[in-house]
Amino acid sequence: MRAAGRGTFETVSTDATADIGLTGLATMGRNLARNMARHGHTVAVHNRSYAKTAALLEEHGDEGDFVGSESLEDFVASIRRPRAVVVMVKAGEATDAVVDALVPLLEEGDIVVDAGNAHYEDTLRRQQALAEHDLHFVGMGVSGGEVGALEGPSIMVGGSEHAYERLAPVVEAIAAQVDGTPCAAHIGPDGAGHFVKMVHNGIEYADMQLIAEAYDLLRTLLGLSPAEIGEIFHEWNDGDLESFLIELTAEVLTHDDADGRPFVDVVLDQAEQKGTGRWTVQSALDLGVPVTGIAEATFARSVSGHAEQRAAAREVFSSAADVPTIEDRDQLVEDVRTALYACKVVAYAQGFDMITEGSNTYGWDVDPGVCATIWRGGCIIRARFLDRIREAYEQEPDLTTLMTQEYFARALKDGEAGWRRVVSLAAAAGVPVPAFGSSLSYFDALRRERLPAALVQGLRDHFGAHTYQRVDRPGSFHTLWASDRSEVDAP
To answer: 117-126: per-residue pLDDT in tens?
Structure first.
């Protein structure tokens, strides 16, 4: 028994009528299916519990054409070939279970699309496994939350060109649109889409941590109320910092609970995470890419969650510090703004460095400019300056780092003095700014002519004979530290 859409329930034939199928009707899957139907596509829908399928048809069947199925067999049979089946279930074992159940029901050339928050290495594994059955596996990153899924997300598709050709009419229609351009693209083969989505989420972690630190600085150093700081963020959203997250920050900070207390003061200060930030940092370590801002943002969430350690530290060490007297309120607000923007540049530069390195390592040929283009709308990190990033890569596709591109270099130079003042004040006042501070250190490390890494190499050679290179002649060398300390060529 299957149910046809438009709010009706009836027995229908098993003729394939659906343009695309979606299984997994929790909030994200439900909204994505509705978005597809609203854009004129006939959508086959299925859920392990048929009650959710029936509820979707009953409540939203008038939004477009749906074909609901109780069994997975009927669901697959209702999709025209080559079939495209979107899986929207919990990442990990649940996704594996659904994919394993689908494979025997599919035919050569059919496509399975994982639109969940999967780790890209799982996507690589699944792609290889399905290729043995002559099936295409697509890892599709979807950003924008439940609202974006319904109204237009940013979509990062990784998979074969054949698969994208089949999916493009749907994903490009349902994606957010900016200046007439859909925020959806074929990022590259196999795991490229989920990799880029992972890095997107890592940047998102850094972005939120930087915003939180800016709020903390303004509140601690100037004694401003959340509502007053919210108004500052509202003003900032009219300038270079304009972004979805800055807009949300202004709304959260000016919101009071039912008792009239600032909302931010009644929320437990222990940030949670679903793992994508941690995946980004782990992958960056494997690739050898320093993503210090993302790492510190991830660790900051971990620190916030260690309530017992925090309580123990407060008993031993006073949380109070002597807050320096601020003579010029407006100057500090401006310093925090320019420092926030500079740190944002660093975070995005590191994220795009990681995308480039991942692409080179896995042979994906990802275009960073395309990533910037599709992140301009729908996704959580959408921001005005993504247009600048897109333009930078259009002008210089092999850009070494965004930080040296003319526009961003000027932003860093203009913000440097205020950035240093803010980090110094934070240290004096005992305000933790791990993301602000690490971003400044990264900036200083890149611009420094000589780094103390030379000493690190010397120590490694002394205790482990790891060898070193010299600045005055080629080759690798080792010093005989335990004997006469002469230098020899390394084998």
So the answer is: 999 999 999 9
